[in-house]
Amino acid sequence: MISSLIGLRRFHLASRIAYRICMWLLCAAYASVSFAQQPAQASEFSRELSRTIRTWEFLPVVGSRAGLFGNEAGRFEAWVYPLKIFRDFHLTFHVGDRALAAESLARTLTVRPESASILYVGDSFRVRETLCVPVNEAGAVILLDVETEEPLEVEAGFVGDFQLEWPAALGGTFVTWDAKERAVVFGEEARKYAAFVGSPTATDAHLSYQTNYSSSEQNSLRLGVTQKGKESKVLVIAASVAGRADAEKTYQHLLTSYADSIRESADYYRSYLGKTVGLELPDAALQQAYDWARISTIQGIVNNPYLGIGLVAGYRTSGAGQRPGFAWFFGRDSMWTSFALNAEGDYSTARTALDFISKYQRDDGKVPHEISQSASLVPWFKDYPYAYVSADATPLFIIAMNDYAVQSGDVAFARDKWDNVWRAYQFMHSTYDAQGLAQNTGVGHGWVEGGPLLPVKNEYYQAGLAVEALRALSNLARLVGKQDVSKQLGAEFAHSLATLDQAFWSPEMRAYAFALKPDNTRAGEASVLTTVPMWFGLSDANHADQTITRLAAADHETDWGMRIISQQSKVYDGSGYHYGSVWPLFTGWASVAEYRYHRAFPAYFNLRANALLGADGALGHFTEVLSGDYYQSFATSSPHQIWSAAMVISPILRGMFGLQTEVEKHQITLAPHVPADWTFFAIRNVRIGEVGVDFRYRKTPDSVELDTERNGSGDCWIEFSPAFSLRAQVVSVQMNGRPLQFKIIPNANDQHLSVRFPVNGGTNHLVIRVKNDFGLALANELPALGSASLGLRVLSESWNTSKTALTLDVSGRAGSHYELSVWNPSQIASVEGAILSKMGKLDIQMPEGAADSYVQEKVVVHFAHP
Q1: Across the chain, what does the average pLDDT equal?
Q2: 272 burial class (0-12, 13-18, 19+ CB within 10 angstroms)?
Q3: pTM for the complete prediction?
Q4: For 264, 305, 790, 853, which has the most beta carbons within 10 A of its beta carbon?
């Protein structure tokens, strides 16, 4: 007995040492700050976010093989894919004769990429619970750091829910206590699946049971009494689809090596941020959101033991069911996410996602819509209606393959997948209507899956994707050496492009129609879905401009993103999943499209609305869908949605910075539309083949400077095309002190200076001298939870011919006051509809109107003649 006690004490001491090392690794270097508290010029990502507990908010902690999904009060469920282990995990603190529910004492949440910690505080104690899911392990670790003034014991309780992910199921399951391992063990009659939940200090186990006269769903473990002072506990979860022995092996490995596993996970995320495109921004909130969006996106990678490695769509608790949000594989989600992965230079993950989806392509070429994690265990592709239900995954697959090949230079992969993309084209071609437009009737849904917006024959979204797929496939054919096919597809693209615009442009609405109805007439709904063809530059510039102006109004654009249709539509419902709600996906589409057509005000508004969501929902993550009426995530939303995180990355890199790599041309394009009051930014680690390039941009009222530095071998050219006000005049352009040729490309809303130069060794210093530069900027914020929209909208900008007057059409809450930042206010001679303050801002007072209504105002800024 004495030797056992000595051994136990030694184990407790070793556990405390290991835990201290682990917590030092988790927390040492970074103070807990919110997005808005970050230093404005932070060049290194802060891997820790912290806030007061919101008991209702989703809390995910995930790796590639397992996940913990719960809420900030500390209740959660555990998955080791494709197995669900338990639900309703919770802690109880036993102090004296009291049993205190931990959730009532939850005070502070701290999240890092590899973990989440909840701090519980009682009158005489505090306990920090840290949830960790190592990136590549089939299990999870829960660390408990106890500090108490009187004897305290932690009890862990949970409801066993040992089942396969929907729609597969296990037969008879059982639960036992393994005294040697001090673990609750789950199993089933075939002995194929097993799971362990235990701790070296576990005692007094109580298991669920059912008899004729009583029953209990609860399982619980007590983790030993801490008499006084500080002590650490560890609880491990492990599972296997290869039997009990394999699950036990993982359990033992995590018990003995969890500190190493957690450190490796922290290193994994640190390395990921270092090897993908990094930013340094003056917008502190945007800086932090971009870094967390990269983390949130890569956490969509799942390694399923039956299906392989791919991207899932998102995470949410399953409750008493077996479907954890959208934690199964989706075709179109993977494709939209791949555009963000390519933009940030994560070609490996993009390739993995494309390869996974291509493995399950139907024989006729149709690309899968969704694949459950238990698809191999049921006749998923034969008897279930979900696998190929969408039409849009097929053209998106072709587009994503081309985007990957162009940006990564991996033509060999495109050549290997040629049969897949060609069969996808053949299926897509079989869906054309008499006009040659891809249709949805009898094929599968486009974006809209149900509700009052249906029935339609062709969505502009779907038809536009099919047209872009022609251009993409034409380029892929050229890359793999099929010149005749490339030429044929190029001609088909040109013809289809003209047909597309003619079919969907509505002069009556002064916007693109959402769809064509079964009788080929245009559906009379303007929709954010029409920005998808604009993302790819398919829309007529004037028509796109008019559509964007309409969509920028408050009936379409909330403070937290874009509604699918106008709030004034007869079929609008703010709670309608496909006829009124706000999706960050839509908001991202709109932002990239608006930047492409030089509409920087609504583009940045939408970009920032998406970005700020990461600090206001599941901390560090981005929700799937929100109400169209009030700033509130849907109760059924997946709060950690992968393509929502991707729609922070793409609008920043593809949209605002106009960043594009083309390995074939050895060229990086940088065409920024940054806010007028940004005086600097930096972009690091843009890869083009074997070359990596860093950019540093600085701006003064009379100059723009760009420093570029490279590493690695090979040719590299930069196409730099920054946006300037239409009033600005370029005086000179010099590279390293020598004149450099340039051209000016004017648009309706701005003008771009364009230069092309090679990046040589050392620093390449570009200086653009300008005069009469001018700009306005608006940094929007999210409203309080549950609020309606409050912010200012800039609907349109227009200059007179002599560029001596700029007219803004703005919209805001009746009677409200707003400010616009002014770049180079000395240019202003006078203002109508606003006041130029002594602080160099435009103060706008909106006219009075009905309570809570949005009203419009016209602001005219007059300039002295050049």
Answers
A1: 93
A2: middle
A3: 0.94
A4: 790
